[in-house]
Fold this protein.
Amino acid sequence: MDFELSSEHLSLKESVASFVKKDHSFDRLRTLRNDPLGYSKEVWKKMAELGWMGLIYPEEYGGLELDFAFVMVLLEEFGRGLLPEPWISNVLLGGNLVLMGGSESQKHEVLPGVVSGDLMITAAYLEDDGRYDINFCATSAEQRGDAYFISGKKIFVLDGLSADRFVVSTRTSGSVADKDGITLFMVSSHDAGVKITPLKTMDGRNACIMELRDVSVSGSNVIGEVGRGYPLLSEAIDQATAGICAEMVGGMKSSLDLTVAYLSERTQFGKPIGTFQTPQHKTADMFIQKELAVSSVYYAIASIDEKTDERALAVSIAKAKCSSAYIEITKAAVQLFGAIGFTNEGDIGFFLRRAKVSEILFGDTDYHLDRYTRLSGY
């Protein structure tokens, strides 16, 4: 596996870093915390014009058809600045499921809109009592004539408040925890019987609870094959998990940079506090945790790019490491900043809030350690 970034990767990295510096700030985050969506549609449109929504999509749907390492480059820079725009849910979840399992007509109907930034689509798959297991599905889809009628409830639908379409996992056969018998449907937020209840995450982004009561959709809304939705969902969520890990790595790097800069500027007893032994030990631990996380994420991204058999294992290793490392690094950073780290005026506190949300997105450390064990045959 090649872990070196090419000149094209480095060019994208420079472009995204410049965009984040020019079009984003921590003051924007403070303002958006009071916005129901938690992001700016104007900034989203600018990102689309730069081609970032179509990064991994084929050219025939308006994309650039680049390798998955470009996702890592993009999201690491988003994570450095804590950009709140919903790229992962739209591109790696909703749009990606259509790309992987949709018919040609579905792809041409949906993907150009995702690439242009005009269509928002996410995935609804988590349920009460299911924890992070994507095969846990009690939402039912009953066929009556040519139509399917969907009833059930999905929780913590990422960026669901702003979505025009949802890819919803339903059960068309089998029992509640079976992997077989799951069917994916594309559902509109305006379909009769769909109820959206907004949620706000700790870091100010949006999610929702989605309730479906006898929602009628045609058979042409099935993504992939009836009863064969689990492999598609599993692959898309693994890619989204690798994406959030790349974003977390960016957040770890910024947290460490901000902390080292603060320790170099803040003086006590006539010396920068960074010259004292305890802060030095803590920042050394932060650096080690960050480096271990970076290595695990690079391995996961390369496994996805090369489609190796161990990519699910690599993704779980990366998420388990990133979930614990990001929390430890940001907690240490806030402690080193002192009281200002807990205030609204302190930028470092935004990273701790993002770390807490990212820790549980797509499975926490315990879940992924358990998944790694199961996938390894233990």
